Amino acid sequence: MTSLPVLPLSPDAPGRRPALPPRHLADLDLAGRQALLAELGEPAFRAKQLSTHYFGRLVRDPAQMTDLPAASRDRLAESLMPRLLTPVRELACDGGATRKALWRLHDGSLVESVLMGYPDRVTVCISSQAGCGMACPFCATGQAGLTRNLSTAEIVDQAVYLAGVAASGAVTGSPPRLSHVVFMGMGEPLANYSRVVDAVRRLCTPAPEGLGLSQRHVTVSTVGLVPAMRRLAGEGLSVTLALSLHAPDDELRDELVPVNQRWKVAEVLDAAWDYASRTGRRVSVEYAMIRDVNDQPWRADLLGRLLSGRLAHVNLIPLNPTPGSRWDASPKPVEREFVRRLREAGVSTTVRDTRGREIDGACGQLAASETGSADGR
Fold first, then answer.
1. How far apart are CA 180 and CA 116, in angstroms?
2. How many alpha carbons fall within 13 Å on the CB side of residue 34?
3. pLDDT at 16
4. What is the rounded distance in angstroms from the CA atom of residue 361 to the CA atom of residue 92?
5. Long-range contacts of 164-170 (CB under 8 A, 24+ apart)
6. For the chain, how big is the Rg over CA atoms in Å?
7. Cα 93 from Cα 361, distance rounded (Å)
8. Alpha carbons 7 and 132: distance in angstroms, whole number
9. Reduced to 3 states, what is the DSSP secondary structure of residue 349?
10. 321 or 55, which is more confident?
11. Exposed e or buried b for every residue in 323-341, given b needs 16+ CB within 10 A?
12. Worst-scoring range by mean pLDDT, 16-25, 225-234, 277-286?
């Protein structure tokens, strides 16, 4: 059995709170931006100008905001538009339809984002933490541990950058507009609750205050932090909740998802059904298919009994193994039998489209490979 680790907030300064990045306009709502500009002696309408550039035109460089007075640009950039993400590596595969970005933050932390283009939509997968403290043993990010939470703006800026990539037409065969965001990158979103909820509001508030996405096109994942799940149900949001279950029984889930030692399967599912009941939104149950670990027919049957008749959909995930890991993906015949049993139980089930294997597509793999290169391994 895997015990939850006690992790320092920062590997370089155990016990000390890591410094968040400089304030950015995406950390503030429109009223907050106006108040800050008033403190700087700027007219309130500058807030709308800056917001229109950033959220409406996807311009992140103040030097390109030529409708602002040249004398004010540097000060406005320093106060409201500091650089948050510095590209380290950007890789593409699937004919350019999948693009993964590795970012270095102001303190040297590494985070990842993935853009995925489809014929009818463009989706970005963004990170909410640098690293992750949940310690799931089959996940590259979980193996790395937690560095720190991301700020609201660091979360939002990933989506804005990749929305700009989509708008440039670089994702061939897809619409030139970002439409979906999934919080399934590095980190446990509900462990950074207030900033993630603020980021969702920035992404979904109409332009120019926000990016103008539909709440129904935003998915927030969790390994099952029950109090935060119940809190999210009361936020008045209509985002999709994705529950990373990965095992239907407590004995195995205690090992695969160590937070299960605190909140057991029954309690986690009860919180999920509460979310579905209060929001009317179907819960997405994420289940990584791991060879000879959680893919037995009896576990499919148990999962079917737990979900039958509920407002839920199972998203089976072919495991993308990390280098040197003992975990491997289930064989396709096993996967198909798992799907058959779930559907026979009346549970809506799909198998996730696998993307990005050749570009370290799984969560945390690109950051891990970059860290390894920097360390000379």
1. 10
2. 7
3. 53
4. 10
5. 164/58, 164/60, 165/99, 165/115, 166/115, 166/117, 166/122, 167/58, 170/96, 170/99
6. 21
7. 10
8. 10
9. strand
10. 55
11. eeeebebbeeebbebbbeb
12. 16-25
Whether the per-residue pLDDT at 174 is higher than 60: the answer is yes
Structure confidence at residue 217 as a pLDDT band (50, 70, 90): very high
User: Which token pair is 100?
Assistant: 């993964």
- Spatial CB neighbours of 1, under 8 Å, sequence gap ≥ 6: 254, 255, 261
pLDDT over 80 (residue 4): no
Q: For residue 134, which of 142, 125, 144, 126 has the smallest C-alpha distance?
A: 142
Give the residue carrying structure tokens 């950058």: 161
For residues 328 and 319, the answer to whether their CB atoms sit within 8 Å is yes
CA-to-CA separations, 363 to 114, 126, 137, 289, in angstroms, rounded: 9, 10, 13, 15
Q: Which residues pair with 173 in a beta bridge?
A: none
Q: What angle do CA 92, 356, 95 make, to 5 degrees?
A: 45
212, containing H or E segment: none
Instruction: Map residue 366 onto helix, strand or coil.
Output: helix
Q: Choose the catalytic residue: 42, 112, 188, 255.
A: 112
Q: Is the per-residue pLDDT at 302 higher than 50?
A: yes
Residue 80 carries which side chain, given as an amino acid letter? L
Distance CA 352, CA 10 (A): 34
The arrangement of strands across the sheet holding 180-183 comes to 86-93, 98-104, 110-118, 121-125, 180-183, 218-222, 240-244, 283-289, 312-318, 348-351
3-class SS shares of the chain: helix, strand, coil, % to 5? 40, 20, 40
- Catalytic, 286? Answer no
Q: Is 136 a catalytic residue?
A: no
* pLDDT value of residue 357: 57
DSSP 8-state symbol, 56: I
Strands 180-183 and 146-149, bridge-based pairing: unpaired
Which is the catalytic residue, given 136, 255, 363, 370? 363
Q: How would you classify the pairing of strands 110-118 and 121-125?
A: antiparallel
